[in-house]
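Q: Hi! Curious about what GNAT family N-acetyltransferase looks like structurally. Here's the sequence.
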Amino acid sequence: MTVKQATLHDAAAIAVLFDAYRCYYEQAADLPAAEAFIAKRLRNEESVIYVAMEGEQFIGFVQLYPFFTSIGMKRAWVLNDLYVLADHRNKGVGRALVTAAEQLAKATASGWIMLQTHHHNTNAQALYEKLGFQKDLDYCYYYLSV
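A: Let's find out. The predicted structure is below.
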């Protein structure tokens, strides 16, 4: 397995994984929209995506979005998406992708990486906690749909 930073050339292959990821979270499949979304993020340099590959096959990805922490006066990253094909889970793929994300954060002198996952995704929670992420018990998060 290898992990590399994705380029616009990889958008179609990533879109297949991204569409499956969205379906996991009960969204309707829409491969053309998934590809357009991923391509736009890469083209506009609005996210950083790492892909895990076995040979030429894309088996997982992680997508991070940059932002800034005013209190820490540093860049920070949101690890927004992490997905590994079912046949490749529990083989270190997720760990390798999160490690790439951590290396990005260190290379960009960032304060931290933040993520959220669904309460039912206990496998992901176990991975994140094993890799040193800590559940935030101090802050409440609110959303406003627009």
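A: A fun detail: Residues 93-107 form the longest helix (15 residues).
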